[in-house]
Amino acid sequence: MGKKKKKHGSNLIASNRKARHDYTILDTYEAGIVLVGTEIKSLREGKASLVEAFATIDNGEVWLRNLHIPEYSMGSWTNHSPRRHRKLLLHRGEIDSLEGKVRDGNKTLVPLSLYLKDGRVKVELGLAQGKQDWDKRQSIKRRTEEREIVREMGRKIKGINA
């Protein structure tokens, strides 16, 4: 994603738009991410992909897997591996709570967006439950109906003012 968009006063680097289509987001968390020097330089250029990314909890630590940060173009032998596992920084209470929720049911941790906030890279992590095909169709139908209602209300208001 080449463009940077504003998100709550932050620079959006990448977003996972498909996550909200494939999952029902139950709760969101903001987490820091441990990066090496060439990764942050590549992210500041606006290069990252969250398409296949997911988070796991191993030994009381949260890890972001399959996040693709391409190698820094100006880097040398110090370049990073594009798909390495990256540690997420959350409070102990949040990690314990997430671990219980993920272990109890069919829930997963999905990164929703990656952005710069006060010079630091943050990940918006969603506690998500997978949608079935009929759930996805229902969501699309509901969005379409809401769009139609707004469109009709606009026509009625213009008809009254005209």
UniProtKB/TrEMBL annotation:
GO cellular component: cytosol
RNA-binding recorded as keyword: yes
Chief site of localization: cytoplasm
UniProt key word DNA damage: no
BP GO terms, sorted: trans-translation; trans-translation-dependent protein tagging
Compartments where located: Cytoplasm
Entries under Pfam families matching the protein: SmpB
Molecular function in Gene Ontology: RNA binding
Keywords: Cytoplasm, RNA-binding
Alphabetical list of InterPro entries matching this protein: SmpB (IPR023620), SsrA-bd_prot (IPR000037), SsrA-bd_prot_CS (IPR020081)
NCBIfam families in the record: PRK05422.1, smpB
Task performed by this protein: Required for rescue of stalled ribosomes mediated by trans-translation. Binds to transfer-messenger RNA (tmRNA), required for stable association of tmRNA with ribosomes. tmRNA and SmpB together mimic tRNA shape, replacing the anticodon stem-loop with SmpB. tmRNA is encoded by the ssrA gene; the 2 termini fold to resemble tRNA(Ala) and it encodes a 'tag peptide', a short internal open reading frame. During trans-translation Ala-aminoacylated tmRNA acts like a tRNA, entering the A-site of stalled ribosomes, displacing the stalled mRNA.
HAMAP family, sorted: SmpB
Family designation: Belongs to the SmpB family.
UniProt xrefs under PANTHER family: SSRA-BINDING PROTEIN, TMRNA-BINDING COMPONENT OF TRANS-TRANSLATION TAGGING COMPLEX
Protein name listed in UniProt: SsrA-binding protein
